């Protein structure tokens, strides 16, 4: 029995998604959430979901905050964006932030069902008009950068923020209340995970994306480590 979570504040569209899922799966348990907070509680309390279908514009979120919350707290859960906005920039940003798929609410039930099947099979689904091949080299680099940043722990992201502010290890250690050896260890891990060889390179890479949004999400949702 597979579990799928629908996260949308519109009951009629939740019903439409429910029908699309039922058309391709017989043994499925479907749960629904009207807010991101509700979805987090469901995922924590029930667990073992195969897929989350997320309306990008939820009343309790701003921009990609909802997607970032789910990706950070449940990194193994595939999240497919289902939205009324058909904008290539949204598609690219969704992929950059770790979405496993993107489908417009205006798509037919058959197309939505196909998209769900593709994501459940482990693929990333993007409509033909916005295929992976259409993402230019810059977009691919930003996608890779976002994934590398998501691999950092909350404490490592905070240290990286301080590096961006030009602070030395001694200053970072004082503000965080830890030893310089701990800061050096964090910096080493940051360089390794970001695949760079210097603090300067790490700062330059972090400046290429909305780093503050990622840091805010990590600070609000991740355990300290």
List the helices and strands and how they pair.
Blueprint: E1 2-7, H1 11-24, E2 28-33, H2 36-45, E3 51-54, H3 65-73, E4 79-83, H4 88-96, E5 101-104, H5 109-120, H6 137-150, H7 154-164, H8 169-176, H9 180-194, H10 199-206, H11 211-221
Parallel strand pairs: 1-2, 1-3, 3-4, 4-5
Helix pairs in contact: 1-5, 3-11, 4-6, 7-9, 7-10, 7-11, 8-9
- Rg is 19 Å
Regarding CATH, which class of the largest domain? Alpha Beta
Helicity, as a percent range? 40-55%
Order of helices and strands: EHEHEHEHEHHHHHHH
Major β-sheet, in short?
A: 5 strands, parallel
Structurally, the number of domains stands at 2
> Number of DSSP strands?
5
> Number of DSSP helices?
11
Instruction: Enter the CATH topology name of the largest domain.
Output: Rossmann fold
Structural class: alpha/beta
Shape: elongated
Mean pLDDT across all amino acids: 83
CATH homologous superfamily descriptor of the largest domain: Response regulator
Strand fraction equals 5-15%
Low-confidence stretches: none
Strands ordered across the widest β-sheet: 2-1-3-4-5
Q: In the CATH hierarchy, what is the architecture of the largest domain at level 2?
A: 3-Layer(aba) Sandwich
The CA-CA distance between the termini, in Å, is: 34 Å
Describe the structure.
- 32% of the residues are buried.
- The protein has a five-stranded parallel sheet, with helices on both faces.
- It is an alpha/beta fold and 225 residues long.
- Helix 4 (88-96) links the parallel strand 4 and strand 5 (101-104).
- Helix 7 (154-164) crosses helix 9 (180-194) and helix 7 crosses helix 10 (199-206).
- The protein contains eleven helices and five strands.
- The longest helix has 15 residues, at 180-194.
- It folds into two domains: 2-134, Rossmann fold (3-Layer(aba) Sandwich), CATH 3.40.50.2300; 137-221, Response regulator (Rossmann fold, 3-Layer(aba) Sandwich).
């Amino acid at each position: 029995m597979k579990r799928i979570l629908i996260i949308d504040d519109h009951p009629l569209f939740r019903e439409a998604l429910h029908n699309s899922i039922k058309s391709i799966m017989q043994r499925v348990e479907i749960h629904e959430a009207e807010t991101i907070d509700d979805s987090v509680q469901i995922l924590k309390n029930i667990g073992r979901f195969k897929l989350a279908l997320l309306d990008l514009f939820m009343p309790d979120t701003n921009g990609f905050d909802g997607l970032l919350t789910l990706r950070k707290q449940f990194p193994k859960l595939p999240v497919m964006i289902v939205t009324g906005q058909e904008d290539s920039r949204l598609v690219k940003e969704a992929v950059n932030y770790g979405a496993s798929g993107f489908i417009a609410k205006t798509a037919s039930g058959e197309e939505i069902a196909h998209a769900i099947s593709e994501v459940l099979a482990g693929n990333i689904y993007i409509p033909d008009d916005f295929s992976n091949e259409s993402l230019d080299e810059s977009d691919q680099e930003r996608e890779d950068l976002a994934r590398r940043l998501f691999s950092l722990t909350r404490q490592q992201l905070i240290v990286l923020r301080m590096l961006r502010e030009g602070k030395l290890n001694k200053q970072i250690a004082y503000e965080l209340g830890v030893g310089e050896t701990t800061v050096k260890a964090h910096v080493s891990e940051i360089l390794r995970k970001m695949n760079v060889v210097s603090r300067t390179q790490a700062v330059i890479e972090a400046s290429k994306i909305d780093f503050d949004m990622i840091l805010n999400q990590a600070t609000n949702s991740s355990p300290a480590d």
